[in-house]
């Protein structure tokens, strides 16, 4: 009977998944919250992130949230450990224009505003900045940026003459390619399922997919939420959901179902990033199916032994 109960519990778990986000409030508190139910909890206290800009990055596996303080003369990268709530920082020589986390090297990568527009890596523990490649892009456009950790491609936007360009920096092979954007777009994440950059178009309520190879911009679907909290947009490639803050609500746009939902929180959220606690549905299903198969096999053995 215990084996049968275990099998039933595992079967029911197949329908469960986690989807949490981390964000910073208007008073510089760090919160983690459930994007479906709105359940939230406080992580780091007021004052620890004072002076931070709109830049951030996320180490999902290690559950480390990174932010930047651009105060002249005391620039720093700030690390918030979501497991322990500990906050640490390291001085850095320069704050990048945008930042993404590269799990293959365990560092944050970004683009500097130096004349060569150099892509660098930043050690969040020591603050050491290491040049990776020069791009010589004349006018980077913010805040468009995305990263594909599987291929180590860093995507960003820039202006060349009258045209907006989408740039692809291959950090493994040190190559840079570009394509002219077919329409205005601001992208915030990379979707490995479609090899597209996900973001917003014109108007901002329109979700779009950008092909980094051709520059084509494909409209996906729109939301009725028109107001946005500054620097709150983010994309979760695990669940294929796009998020942004709208007042005290966080809006979720699901690419799988082309639907929009929202949750209401007790605070306004900015600097949103997907939390590492999120679990991929395919990965969860595979794991649970293996456990379920084992439980059912044990159930068969138990029934056989009772005869």
- Class based on secondary structure composition and strand pairing: mainly beta
CA radius of gyration is 21 Å
Helix content estimate: 10-25%
Q: Find the count of extended strands (DSSP E, 2+ residues).
A: 24
Order of helices and strands: HEEEEEEEEEEEEEEEEEEEEEEEEH
State the end-to-end distance.
14 Å
Give the low-confidence spans: 1-17, 279-307
The spatial strand order of the largest sheet comes to 3-2-1-24
Beta fraction of the residues? 35-45%
Describe, in plain words, how this protein is organized in 3D.
With 307 residues, the chain is mainly beta. 12% of the residues lie in helices and 45% in strands. It contains two helices and 24 strands. The strands form six sheets. The protein has a four-stranded antiparallel β-sheet, with no helix packed on it. A four-stranded antiparallel β-sheet has the order 4-5-6-7, with no helix packed on it. The longest helix has 26 residues, at 281-306. It is globular. Residues 1-17 and 279-307 have low confidence and may be disordered.
Please give the structural blueprint.
Layout lengths: L1 H12 L6 E6 L4 E5 L5 E5 L11 E4 L4 E6 L6 E6 L5 E5 L7 E4 L4 E5 L6 E5 L6 E6 L4 E10 L4 E8 L2 E8 L4 E6 L5 E6 L4 E5 L5 E5 L6 E6 L11 E3 L4 E6 L2 E6 L4 E6 L4 E6 L6 H26 L1
Antiparallel strand pairs: 1-2, 1-24, 2-3, 4-5, 5-6, 6-7, 8-9, 9-10, 10-11, 12-13, 13-14, 14-15, 16-17, 17-18, 18-19, 20-21, 21-22, 22-23
Task: Name the features.
mainly beta; 4-stranded antiparallel sheet; 307 residues; disordered N terminus; 12% helix; 2 helices
């Amino acid at each position: 009977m215990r084996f049968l109960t275990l099998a039933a519990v595992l079967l029911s778990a197949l329908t469960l998944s986690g989807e949490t986000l981390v964000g910073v409030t208007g008073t510089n508190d760090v919160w983690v919250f459930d994007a479906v139910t709105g359940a939230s909890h406080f992580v780091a206290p007021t004052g620890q992130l004072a002076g931070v800009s709109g830049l951030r990055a996320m180490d999902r596996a290690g559950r480390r949230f990174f932010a930047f303080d651009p105060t002249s003369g005391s620039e720093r990268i700030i690390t918030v450990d979501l497991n322990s709530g500990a906050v640490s920082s390291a001085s850095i020589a320069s704050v990048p224009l945008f930042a993404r986390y590269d799990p293959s090297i365990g560092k944050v990568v970004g683009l500097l505003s130096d004349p060569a527009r150099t892509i660098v890596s930043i050690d969040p523990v020591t603050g050491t900045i290491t040049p990776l490649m020069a791009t010589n892009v004349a006018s980077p456009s913010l805040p468009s940026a995305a990263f594909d950790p599987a291929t180590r491609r860093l995507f960003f936007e820039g202006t060349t003459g009258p045209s907006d360009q989408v740039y692809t920096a291959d950090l493994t092979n040190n190559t840079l390619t570009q394509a002219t954007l077919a329409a205005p777009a601001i992208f915030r994440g990379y979707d490995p399922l479609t090899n597209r950059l996900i973001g917003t178009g014109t108007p901002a309520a329109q979700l779009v997919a950008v092909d980094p190879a051709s520059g084509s911009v494909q409209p996906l679907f729109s939301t009725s939420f028109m107001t946005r909290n500054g620097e709150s947009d983010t994309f979760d490639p695990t669940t294929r959901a796009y998020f942004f803050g709208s007042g005290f609500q966080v809006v979720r746009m699901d690419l799988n179902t082309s639907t929009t939902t929202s949750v209401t929180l007790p605070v306004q959220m900015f600097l949103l990033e997907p939390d590492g606690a999120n679990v991929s549905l395919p990965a969860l299903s595979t794991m649970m199916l293996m456990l379920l198969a084992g439980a059912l096999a044990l159930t068969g053995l138990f029934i056989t032994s009772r005869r």
